[in-house]
Specification:
The protein is an alpha/beta fold. It folds into 2 domains: 195 residues, Glycogen Phosphorylase B (Rossmann fold, 3-Layer(aba) Sandwich), CATH 3.40.50; 179 residues, Rossmann fold (3-Layer(aba) Sandwich), CATH 3.40.50. The protein has a 7-stranded parallel β-sheet with strand order 3-2-1-4-5-6-7, sandwiched between helices.
């Protein structure tokens, strides 16, 4: 049997984003190994779940920061041992540092495994700091020739990747994210919505604003808090109570709590922590807010849209894949608290008929990101690797955008 190694720097990444890929690889006869740093737990999961799925776990000291050279050099050494000792045939690497180390391990290995790298958003992009656009672009161009297949999840990255030179016979593939489960993320019925709001202590006439994402500076929750403060000090509420809930945790948690308190929003901002099941939270919300500075795509925004909940999002290459300003929500600059407040206010002041029309537009805009489409695309990619029949890129092979 062939063996595949999935590599990330965060230990919960496979459970959060790669379960379908594990099943696809297993259906093609691969034994699955997973390497990550158990100390970098970005997504909560039960390690026993991996055992039940037949996934063999390797704990390696891969660091999120590319500047932690000593740790990452040791992680590379360990990866190369895994590739050789476990006789790995395929490396599928994710996250920036995982992408670097996975491709280097494949290159230096005597086994010469096939290498797939999924870029969940290049760290160089339009509007990025000059240092990002110089350094990270150079790194990706340098490592691209070590990739059999480079997968990107948005059109801006697809255009950039097509200019890179991959391994002979390699190619760039566009895959619309990790796949949206449209059966799970569908409109909540009134009873479900009411029950969840009661559980969260949100009254029927409260206006509930929701954000989902790790608490770090890139997710930019502080701008959403500033927007909430502007709404509370204005006349839009008309006696209603405004609640802003955040699902997620991270190193910015304490700072975020202090920031909310400093704005006088301790009673308004609620921190729900990391949640494995998000359907109920979306269903209880009146609007979701995603002020991220940088996103490769943004599955949380798509999950909200699929449930008919409008989104107020920052303008980035991820949100541009699915947001239509004024149709399924509103778009504004990442640091524009006035813009976010305006978008939330417009949704708050909608009539029931206007709200339902926008909800239908939300659901339609999420359809093309379905899990079925993504699974079909990934199966084709894995099957190609399993057969070791890579062909030069062509118009037909690179999925049309």
């Amino acid at each position: 049997m062939k063996k595949a190694l999935i590599l990330t720097n965060q230990s919960g990444f496979l459970w959060k984003f790669e379960l379908e890929n594990v099943l696809l690889l297993q259906s093609l006869g691969f034994i699955i190994h997973y390497a990550s740093n158990s100390a970098e737990e970005g997504y909560h999961y039960d390690p026993c779940d991996l055992d039940r799925m037949g996934v063999i776990y390797h704990d390696i000291p891969i660091a999120r920061s590319p500047y932690m050279w000593r740790m990452n050099f040791e992680a590379l050494r360990r990866l190369m041992d895994i590739v050789e000792n476990e006789k790995i045939d395929l490396i599928h690497c994710h996250t920036p540092v995982g992408g670097v180390l996975g491709r280097l391990a494949g290159y230096f290995s005597k086994r010469h495994p096939a290498v797939i790298y999924t870029a969940h958003g290049f760290h160089f992009y339009k509007g990025a700091p000059l240092w990002n656009n110089v350094l990270y672009r150079a790194v990706e161009q340098l490592l691209a020739p070590l990739s059999d297949i480079l997968i990107v999840i948005n059109r801006e990255d697809f255009a950039a990747a097509q200019k890179m030179r991959l391994k002979k016979g390699g190619r760039v593939c566009y895959v619309p994210g990790v796949g949206l489960d449209l059966d799970k993320f569908r409109a909540a019925d009134p009873a479900e919505r009411a029950a969840m709001r009661e559980r969260l202590g949100i009254r029927p006439d409260d206006f509930f604003v929701l954000s989902v994402g790790e608490l770090n500076r890139n997710k930019n929750h502080v701008t959403a808090m500033r927007a909430v403060l502007k709404l509370k000090s204005g006349s839009a509420l008309r006696g209603r109570r405004l609640i802003y809930g955040i699902c997620g945790d991270g190193y910015f948690m304490n700072e975020a709590r202090q920031y909310a308190a400093g704005l006088g929003l301790s009673e308004t901002v609620r921190f729900f922590g990391y949640q494995r099941e998000m359907r109920g939270y979306y269903g209880a919300a009146d609007v979701t807010v995603f002020p991220s500075i940088r996103e490769g795509l943004g599955m949380s925004g798509l999950e909200s849209l699929a449930m008919g909940v409008p989104v107020v999002a920052s303008d980035n290459r991820g949100s541009r894949e699915y947001m239509n300003n004024g149709v399924n929500g509103y778009v504004c600059a990442p640091q524009d608290a006035d813009g976010f407040a305006s978008g939330i206010r417009k949704i708050m002041e909608m009539t029931e008929a206007e709200r339902e029309r926008m909800a239908e537009c939300c659901r339609r805009s999420a359809q093309r990101f379905s899990k079925e489409r993504t699974v079909r695309r990934m199966f084709e990619i894995y099957q190609e690797i399993a057969l070791r029949d890579l062909q030069p890129a062509s118009t037909e092979q690179s999925e049309s955008l």
